[in-house]
Amino acid sequence: MERKTIMICDDDKGILEMLELFLELEGFHVICEINSTNLITQLNTHKPDLLLLDLWMPLLSGDQVLKIIRGTAEIKHLPVIVLSASVDGNVIAKQLGADGFIAKPFDLDDITSGITTILSN
């Protein structure tokens, strides 16, 4: 089976490193982006199978990024799971067309099952 590529965008280096390590152990190819302003370019370059996107980031927030993704023909169908500690993160994620939502602090099993569910559809 071909390894699926997961891109993670989060401004927290600790979360990025932990998720990268975990998802690579789960058999995924992982690309991390800490700067949300680089994300759209990275998505077009690497064409990941799924994006894990933090909602609250400096410069360009996750909701702004998701609006750009959904409005860009080449990447608008990219599956996106939003990660957020925000109490209304789930509502925001749904409104913006995210495919899934995982609350922070998250359980790694929730991340794996969320990714697996979306990629198997």
Overall description:
Among the domains are: 35 residues, no CATH class; 47 residues, Response regulator (Rossmann fold, 3-Layer(aba) Sandwich), CATH 3.40.50. The chain has 5 helices and 5 strands; from the N terminus they run E-H-E-H-E-H-E-H-E-H. Strands 2-1-3-4-5 form a 5-stranded parallel beta sheet, sandwiched between helices. It has 121 residues and is of the alpha/beta class. Helix content is 40%, strand content 20%.
Could you name the key traits of this structure?
five-stranded parallel sheet, 121 residues, Rossmann fold, 40% helix, globular, 5 helices, alpha/beta
Give the helix/strand layout.
Blueprint: E1 5-9, H1 13-25, E2 29-33, H2 39-46, E3 50-54, H3 62-70, E4 80-84, H4 89-95, E5 100-103, H5 108-119
Parallel strand pairs: 1-2, 1-3, 3-4, 4-5
Please trace the helix and strand order, writing H or E for each element. EHEHEHEHEH
State which percent range the strand residues make up: 15-25%
CATH class of one domain: Alpha Beta
Stated plainly, the CATH topology of one domain is called: Rossmann fold
CATH superfamily of one domain: Response regulator
- Distance between the first and last residues' Cα: 16 Å
The strand order across the widest sheet is: 2-1-3-4-5
Radius of gyration: 13 Å
Describe the biggest sheet?
A: 5 strands, parallel
- Average pLDDT number: 95
Instruction: Identify the CATH architecture of one domain.
Output: 3-Layer(aba) Sandwich
Taken from the alpha-carbon principal axes, the silhouette is globular
Summarize this structure briefly:
Among the domains are: 1-35, no CATH class; 75-121, 3-Layer(aba) Sandwich (Rossmann fold). The chain is built from five helices and five strands.
